[in-house]
Write a structure and sequence with these properties.
Number of strands: 3
Helix content: 10-25%
Number of helices: 1
Structural class: mainly beta
Strand order of the largest sheet: 2-1-3
Distance between the termini: 10 Å
Shape: globular
Order of helices and strands: EEHE
Radius of gyration: 12 Å
Length: about 70
């Protein structure tokens, strides 16, 4: 499992970063979507180098392969 730093924010407004565990950057967007508020969008997704750091959301999983934190 990798850890991604996802920047989210509203158009012309402030942005914030969240850390999410995920297998892919696309799934990282799904995990970050759970933390977004109305009017926010994903601005960037960057894979971090430290897979053991604390995260802000659980892995997103899929219907056929749900992720679990181990």
């Amino acid at each position: 499992m990798k850890v991604y730093r996802v920047s989210i924010g509203g158009e012309g407004g402030p942005s914030r970063e969240v850390e999410v565990p995920s297998k892919t950057d696309v799934q990282a967007a799904d995990a970050a979507a759970e933390l977004m508020q109305t009017g926010e969008a994903i601005l960037s997704i960057i894979k971090t180098d430290d897979p053991d750091q604390e995260v802000d959301a659980p892995p997103p999983g899929t219907q056929t392969d749900p992720d679990q934190i181990t």
